[in-house]
């Protein structure tokens, strides 16, 4: 669910949208999309979700969508689990070559809209403590840190990394982001 951390900050003058971003659209994720999704997942993370994780989420009826361009190329995706009065964002990923163009924010806006439609009062997520870039995006989109999960994520050399638990109150935030 975390975003890939770049090796260097993007240039300040870099556009937040790409020429194709205006034609980007959201569509449901299907099992026949998983080869392309897994290619992105493996490039984006040191500890990616497996095909089984995605299949289980789709078969359980979780909210799962792709952000695609006019040629149906996958720009990013999310998977979220509805709960009692809340939605839990399990995975949000933007393909590394499409980052810094507003796709993550658009995906967050889409999942928050789906949560509001439930209706849910909040959107929850966990993000790696070391993923400062993703945490900054979530904070800019109105998420607040509400706790930590010690040793939640696997890390290099058998170590574990803490998760930061964040929450977006759905009565505010992200409406203008879509």
Give structural notes:
It is built from four helices and seven strands. It starts with 24 loop residues before the first strand and ends in a 9-residue tail after the last strand. Residues 1-20 have low confidence and may be disordered. By secondary structure, the chain is an alpha+beta fold. It has a single domain, classed as Aminopeptidase (3-Layer(aba) Sandwich), CATH 3.40.630.30.
Question: Which class do the helix and strand fractions yield?
Answer: alpha+beta
- The average pLDDT score comes to 87
| CATH evolutionary superfamily | Gcn5-related N-acetyltransferase (GNAT)
| Number of domain modules | 1
**Highest-level CATH class:** Alpha Beta
The biggest sheet amounts to: 7 strands, mixed
Round the Cα radius of gyration to an integer and report it: 15 Å
State the end-to-end distance: 20 Å
Low-confidence stretches: 1-20
Per DSSP E runs of 2 or more residues, the count of β-strands stands at 7
Task: Just name the CATH architecture.
Answer: 3-Layer(aba) Sandwich
Percent in helix: 10-25%
CATH topology term: Aminopeptidase
Shape annotation: globular
Order of helices and strands: EHHEEEHEHEE
Q: Tell me the strand order in the biggest sheet.
A: 1-2-3-4-5-7-6
How many helical elements?
4
Strand content: 25-35%
Q: How would the blueprint of this fold be written?
A:
Layout lengths: L24 E4 L5 H11 L6 H9 L3 E6 L5 E10 L2 E9 L8 H15 L4 E7 L3 H9 L3 E11 L5 E10 L9
Parallel strand pairs: 4-5
Antiparallel strand pairs: 1-2, 2-3, 3-4, 5-7, 6-7
């Amino acid at each position: 669910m975390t975003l890939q951390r770049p090796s260097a900050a993007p240039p300040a003058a870099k556009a937040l949208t790409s020429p194709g971003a205006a034609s980007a659209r959201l569509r449901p994720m299907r099992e026949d999309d998983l080869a392309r999704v897994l290619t992105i997942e493996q490039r984006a993370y040191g500890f990616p979700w497996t095909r089984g994780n995605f299949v289980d989420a789709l078969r359980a009826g979780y909210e799962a969508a792709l952000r695609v361009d006019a040629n149906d190329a996958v720009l990013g995706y999310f998977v979220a689990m509805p709960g009692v009065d809340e939605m839990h964002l399990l995975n949000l990923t933007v393909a590394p070559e499409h980052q810094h163009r507003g796709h993550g924010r658009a995906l967050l806006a889409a999942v928050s809209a789906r949560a509001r439609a439930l209706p849910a009062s909040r959107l929850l997520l966990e993000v790696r403590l070391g993923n400062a870039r993703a945490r900054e995006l979530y904070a800019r989109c109105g998420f607040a840190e509400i706790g930590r999960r010690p040793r939640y994520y696997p890390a290099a050399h058998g170590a574990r990394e803490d998760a930061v638990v964040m929450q977006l109150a759905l009565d505010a935030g992200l409406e203008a982001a879509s």
